[in-house]
């Protein structure tokens, strides 16, 4: 069982004065079955509503009926969502889903990365990244790799960054999601083949020594990677684990019913604003 991972980031270069909490969650098979269970949907809603932006992976919701149920659940805030098309090479497909709080952010633009000819079998990713720019012009690149292709797909994320930078003229980019980046999927001998790892302009904010699993293995499958420019705004050593089972007082069986990935790292983006040509940090929202 592998948890979804987020990380605490301090953004000090944007013209906002409130904290921004961002998460990434591999919810495992989110679709009509989970959405039709009122208790499960309520738990998922409570998790989602902790965040200003949350990436949900493994969304298996062809007609978006489950997504709509989630969005219709009561909230003290106004949430919107942006979702990718179903992605995959076979009949098995997943979507990337971003849910975001309107009071704090908005979507500026987005695209699905064109990774080649899918019918020809020459495309790069099983689930190509759905790239989204949010207000203040920072970019999130999600990726849920196929375990057997993790080395190849994580390496190719470098090309996605280059393309995004070229198209949007920005390097304020964060890559996040279930990279399957460890243990048998990416071994010690594989890292030299991964440009996203060897290129010193990237910063892996979850170390190889981390354990993002709930099993006896120590595997850092879920990752957050920042570009150099994005690092200017990230507070060091602010990654935290959020165990929603404990936080919400759930039994282990209910937590696993929500997802086999029941541990988060808390991603607390604290936004700042310039004052007297100095960037004054204004965030005090650490959990």
Low-pLDDT segments: 1-10, 261-287
Look up the CATH topology: Deoxyribonuclease I, Chain A
Beginning-to-end CA distance, first to last residue: 24 Å
Assigned CATH superfamily: Endonuclease/exonuclease/phosphatase
Q: Would you report the number of β strands?
A: 16
**Could you spell the SSE succession in H and E letters?**
EEHHEHEEEEEHEHEEHEHHEEEE
Q: What form results from the Cα inertia axes?
A: globular
Number of helices: 8
Label the CATH architecture.
4-Layer Sandwich
The strand order across the widest sheet is: 1-14-2-3-5-4
Number of domains: 1
The CATH class name reads: Alpha Beta
What profile does the largest beta sheet have?
A: 6 strands, mixed
Whole-number radius of gyration? 18 Å
Overall mean pLDDT stands at: 82
Helix content: 10-25%
Q: Report the structural category.
A: alpha+beta
What share of the residues does DSSP label as strand, in percent? 25-35%
Structure description:
- By secondary structure, this protein is of the alpha+beta class.
- It has a single domain, classed as Endonuclease/exonuclease/phosphatase (Deoxyribonuclease I, Chain A).
- It has 8 helices and 16 strands.
- The chain has a 6-stranded mixed beta sheet. Strands 6-7-8-9-11-10 form a 6-stranded mixed beta sheet.
- The protein is globular, with a radius of gyration of 18 Å.
- Residues 1-19 form the signal peptide.
- GO terms for molecular function: deoxyribonuclease I activity; DNA binding.
């Amino acid at each position: 069982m592998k948890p979804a991972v987020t990380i605490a980031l301090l953004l000090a270069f944007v013209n906002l004065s409130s904290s921004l909490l961002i998460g990434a969650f591999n919810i495992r098979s989110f679709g009509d079955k989970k959405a039709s269970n009122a208790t499960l949907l309520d738990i998922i809603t409570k998790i989602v509503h902790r965040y200003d932006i949350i990436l949900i992976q493994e969304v298996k919701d062809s007609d978006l009926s489950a997504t709509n149920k989630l969005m219709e659940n009561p909230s003290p805030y106004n949430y919107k969502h942006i979702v990718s098309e179903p992605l995959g090479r076979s009949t098995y497909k997943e979507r990337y889903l971003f849910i975001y709080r309107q009071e704090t952010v908005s979507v500026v633009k987005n695209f699905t990365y064109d990774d080649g000819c899918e019918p020809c079998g020459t495309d790069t990713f099983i689930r190509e990244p759905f790239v989204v720019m949010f207000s203040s012009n920072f970019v999130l690149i999600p990726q849920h790799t196929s375990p057997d292709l993790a080395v190849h797909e994580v390496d190719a994320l470098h090309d996605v960054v280059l393309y995004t930078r070229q198209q949007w003229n920005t390097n304020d980019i964060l890559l996040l999601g279930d990279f399957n980046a460890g243990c048998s999927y990416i071994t010690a001998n594989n890292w030299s083949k991964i440009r996203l790892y060897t290129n010193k302009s990237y910063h892996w904010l979850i170390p190889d020594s981390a354990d993002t699993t709930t099993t006896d293995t120590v595997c850092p499958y879920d990752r957050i990677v920042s570009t150099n420019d994005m690092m200017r705004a990230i507070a060091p050593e602010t990654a935290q684990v959020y165990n929603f089972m404990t936080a919400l007082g759930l039994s282990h069986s209910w937590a696993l019913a929500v997802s086999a990935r029941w541990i988060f790292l808390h991603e607390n983006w604290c936004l700042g604003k310039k004052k007297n040509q100095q960037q004054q940090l204004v965030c005090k929202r650490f959990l």
